[in-house]
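Record type: monomer structure entry
Structure origin: computed from sequence
Chain ID: A
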Amino acid sequence: MNRTYGIAGVTAVVLATVLVGALGLRISRTTSDFYVASRTVAPRLNAFAVSGEYLSAASFLGVAGLVLAQGVDMLWFPIGYTAGFLVLLAFVAAPLRRSGAYTLPDFAEARLRSRAVRRVAGVLVVGIGWLYLLPQLRGAGLTLRLLTGVPGWLGGLVVAAVVTVAVAAGGMRSITFVQAFQYWLKLTALLVPVAFLLFAWRADGLPSPAWDERPVFHRDTEVRADRPLTLTVHEPVRVTASGTVDGRPLHGDPLRLGEGRHRIGAGTTLRFPSGARVPLTDRPPHRTAPSSWGRPLSSDREQHSLYATYGLILATFLGTMGLPHVVVRFYTNPDGRAARRTTVIVLRLLGAFYLLMPLYGMLGRLYAPDLLLTGDTDAAVLVLPQRLVGGVVGDLLGALVAGGACAAFLSTACGLTLSVAGVLAQDVLPRLGVRHFRLATLTAIAVPTAAAAVVSDLPVADAVGLAFAVSASSFCPLLVLGIWWRGLTPPGAIAGLLLGGGSALTAVTVTIAGGARTGWLHTLLAWPAVWSVPVGFAAMVLTSLATHDRVPAGTAATMARLHLPEPTPSTPTP
């Protein structure tokens, strides 16, 4: 990728984000402006903003990277990301808007009349927000590293600074316009290049990817190892090497890599001939093992692929409704009917976007299999324009894709920071106004920025899947039971949030830290939704039944408010 073009594309997106955020300072004055844009956002504009915010680095970079590496099993990610809005539409969207809340903790307190429930919900909102911010900052670091060569942590720091300015300046009102613009930018950044890529693929004779676990170098390919690697060669291959291989210094020498493991030193360059099988790297324990690429459920994901697939489905289907940065957008609609219309439009917008990701994954398998060696499979979308098209056109398309990637992690990071800052400002720094909302913004982005510098090798889509699991285990039971069951009590809600959400949060923390590395224990912790979602629901129901005398006074009125349509303004008589 031409760095000059790429830097220009990213810079343009960053400047547009900062400019709109700064302009929001003129129109965002009240608390309602900052938190929910005074509840005046029309359904179509709000749908654009929801889609722009929801389509994160995990969607723009991570899904194609997972499809490249692991095949059709990974299509459950876009299916789950989209289908989650069907669940939200059916059970949550309109009643949640009618609650009149600003945040999820607001809803919890309004429904259950309990400050204790509010505090527990606030802790989980912050935890989910920070967990979701990690892959956005990692995606930022990856993109800027490919463009400029700077360390990944510096890219995350730059994005954190831009997000702080945009959110602190204008709050929800200005971020709405930023995210609506960024949805169309992201769609354009994928749709235009993929047309050129498909023409180039056709001109190349329509080759098909290798369907087994080891892809083939379709062309002569040079691979540079930025860090030490251990490669497993299944059939001998001749390469040209510069650097260190198995402890031997080489300077552009031909080399035969025999079957078995070979140690590649940092900074070593290997040139593989066309038709050679791609050697496999020794993967970190939390990574999914390679599979038969074109066949579902063939991956030996810790030898429990079916369980892991159900864990992914439950997390993504049920987790969307509890994501704080998604839910808060429905508070900006004028009424419940508008919230439902917003959700229907979002389903169409997400469907259009996710249709493109399998194409990038397939083309990456063909033309960028070297990313499997370096571990940068999330970069497939970024490198394909130069690999297939090349020249000035390839550089321009690469700049467009880089700008789209920048918009992806900026829009989601803005929404997450806004939702976490809202909880911090209300529950940690209460009643101190807009000035302390801006102070809370610094805290909301500083913690995940520091953590992203430490956790650097978790694929972005996998990390987002973990955040979905926590959301599905905590706020899904709270919202579904809180909206549809009169018998929910404050002790029941606390028990469900702590046992369901708390256990899932513990499981994903252990997974990210690398605590459990193999076997059933690792599988249960890496895909907790299968057991943590039932735990959350069961804890809420059973505890509420045991404390049925603690049902809050006024529950009937609250339930009526959630489910009865808002009165429509009467038409003035002439």
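Annotation 1: The radius of gyration is 24 Å.
Annotation 2: The longest strand covers residues 248-257.
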